[in-house]
Design goal:
- The chain has a single domain, classed as Rossmann fold (3-Layer(aba) Sandwich).
- The longest helix is centred in the N-terminal third of the chain and has 18 residues.
- Helices cover 31% and strands 16% of the residues.
- Helix 1 crosses helix 2.
- It is globular, with a radius of gyration of 17 Å.
- By secondary structure, the protein is of the alpha/beta class.
- The structure holds 2-amino-2-deoxy-6-O-phosphono-alpha-D-glucopyranose (GLP).
- 2-amino-2-deoxy-6-O-phosphono-alpha-D-glucopyranose binds next to helix 5.
């Protein structure tokens, strides 16, 4: 596990963008696992800049997003589908046929339909040869994707019920009203994430400092899903000084 501490959010974003750009140059057909949330916004912005100014070419890449809210249409402004288009896909030369986002319109009561869909998503990742790199943020409660505390380390793509904490944290995108935040999401599982050949976890700000500390200096525990990164042979954490402020070890 490598921990790279950058001075601020912008430096963190640039560092991560540089790593992704190198990956794409090395392997134009890279399979990228993408994340949403405020944290990777700067990374996407920098990748867009590299596309516009330095000709970084996404045309042969395939992408798979980590998760999606259940119950939102792709057109809903807060769906992760809209997020990705608005903040990344609409500004680069990615082929929309090769950018996958979990379907947020599954019926939570149709268990068989969910099972078939989630297996299909996993198979598509396999068909592309697996994820070369998975970008991750971290929830204040230690979640990755929408794998909430207690998620099995053996989990695969499936439906998860969101915790009150996550819904509160994300209410800022839903008129600050927790009742408007979906209760369920479909998310890659922890085992799906761990299959990626490389993990890049980003964290910024004081409100992530405790989660970062627990993830990398605490015991590996299903109660802190991000702590599983300690078991990954190629995990890189790129964090800013504030997110590193609770760390005790001299990384
Ligand atoms: C969200 C997403 C995660 C993300 C996390 C942190 O709920 N499902 O993939 O990493 O919470 O979000 P943010 O970056 O906005 O703090």
């Amino acid at each position: 596990m490598r921990v790279i501490i950058q001075s601020d959010y912008q430096e963190m974003s640039k560092y991560a963008a540089h790593m992704i750009a190198e990956q794409i140059k090395r392997k134009p057909q890279s399979v990228l696992g993408l994340a949403t949330g405020s944290t990777p916004l700067g990374l996407y912005k920098e990748l867009i800049r590299l596309y516009e100014n330095e000709g970084l070419d996404f045309s042969k890449c395939t992408t798979f997003n980590l998760d999606e809210y259940l119950g939102l249409t792709p057109q809903h402004p807060q769906s992760y589908d809209s997020f990705m288009k608005e903040n990344f896909f609409n500004h680069i030369n990615i082929d929309p046929r090769f950018s996958f986002i979990p379907n947020g319109q599954l019926d939570p009561l149709n268990l068989q339909g969910i099972k078939i869909y989630c297996e299909w998503y996993e198979n598509e990742i396999q068909k592309e040869g697996g994820l070369d790199v998975q970008i991750l943020g971290i929830g204040a409660n230690g979640h990755i994707g929408f794998n909430e505390p207690g998620s099995s380390f053996g989990s695969r793509t499936r439906i998860k019920t969101l915790t009150e904490k996550t819904r509160q944290d994300n209410a800022r995108f839903f008129d600050n009203n927790i009742d408007h935040v979906p209760k369920y999401a479909v998310t890659m599982g922890i085992a799906t994430i761990m299959d990626a050949r490389q993990l890049i976890l980003l964290a910024s700000g004081n409100n992530k400092a405790l989660a970062v500390k627990k993830a990398i200096e605490g015991p590996i525990s299903a109660m802190v899903p991000a702590s599983i990164v300690q078991m990954h042979p190629q995990a890189i954490l790129i964090i800013d000084k504030e997110a590193a402020s609770e760390l005790e070890y001299d990384w």
